[in-house]
Design brief:
By secondary structure, the chain is mainly beta. The protein is built from no helices and 9 strands. The strands form 2 sheets. It has a 6-stranded antiparallel sheet with strand order 1-2-3-9-4-7, with no helix packed on it. A 3-stranded antiparallel sheet has the order 6-5-8, with no helix packed on it.
């Protein structure tokens, strides 16, 4: 059965009624992460996560075997895709190809908030992680 998660703007910030996790890098906390829909909810094919990065903070520079669909909800960012940097802002979409080096850096005075959709097996914080498909 499907579900609806309603946004709250407590403390002037977008929040959903799911666990709020600290998003960390090697240098410590960088922001927040919420899995708004994912494998633990019974979604077998994808995970929708909302990240909020504080001004001047960046996501970890990573590459994975899965792609990402990203929607910039608030703020501005410098996005690394492969060897290229792109500036994006609220309302922009970003696609990260499989195995592409990527990161998102918050620019400007306000936090960066983005929705990131990945395959269910690509969400490392899920407890009921489905198996990765084999080729």
């Amino acid at each position: 059965m499907g579900l609806v998660r309603r946004r709250s703007t407590a403390e002037g910030r977008d929040r959903w009624p799911v666990e709020q996790r600290t998003y960390r890098g090697e240098d410590g906390p960088r922001g927040l992460k919420q899995i708004v829909v994912g494998p633990d909810d019974g979604a077998p094919n994808f995970a929708m996560r909302v990240f909020q990065l504080q001004p001047g903070k960046a996501s970890n520079e990573e590459e994975h075997g899965h792609d990402h669909g990203v929607y910039i909800m608030h703020g501005r960012a410098k996005v690394l895709l492969g060897a290229d940097h792109h500036e994006v802002q609220a309302g922009d979409f970003v696609w990260v190809a499989p195995d592409e080096r990527h990161s998102f850096e918050s620019l400007g005075p306000e936090p960066l908030q983005f929705l990131c959709v990945v395959p269910a097996w690509g969400e490392p914080d899920a407890e009921r992680l489905p198996p990765r498909p084999t080729a």
